[in-house]
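2024-03-11 09:14:02 INFO worker-7 job=invfold-0412 stage=load source=structure_tokens
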């Protein structure tokens, strides 16, 4: 009877330690998965924020440039409608080209 008691006393702590280790390992796994997901979500959010800031800033800059160009044309040229129309068309073309370039750069970045 004494031998059996000794074996049981030795076995119980080992089993408890193994159970605890399994629980710790599974908790660590879950924490690692959650961390990986959080990091990837943060990276995506950062990319979106950076891209949107770049787009907003570039659109504001382009609008300002267009306004300045229109002002310069209106002041410099003694309002010849044909010249103003040509300048407007070229400005629109430049803006469209810049937008296309921006979109392609954004796609490349993402």
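2024-03-11 09:14:09 INFO worker-7 stage=emit residues=110
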């Amino acid at each position: 009877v004494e031998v059996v008691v000794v074996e049981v006393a030795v076995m119980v702590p080992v089993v408890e330690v193994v159970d605890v280790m399994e629980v710790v390992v599974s908790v660590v796994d879950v924490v690692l998965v959650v961390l990986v997901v959080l990091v990837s979500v943060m990276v995506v959010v950062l990319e979106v924020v950076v891209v949107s800031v770049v787009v907003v800033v570039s659109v504001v800059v382009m609008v300002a440039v267009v306004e300045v160009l229109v002002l310069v044309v209106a002041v410099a040229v003694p309002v010849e409608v044909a010249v103003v129309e040509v300048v407007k068309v070229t400005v629109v073309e430049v803006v469209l080209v810049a937008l296309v370039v921006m979109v392609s750069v954004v796609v490349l970045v993402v």
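2024-03-11 09:14:09 INFO worker-7 stage=report msg="Residues 3 and 52 are 74 Å apart (CA to CA)."
2024-03-11 09:14:10 INFO worker-7 job finished
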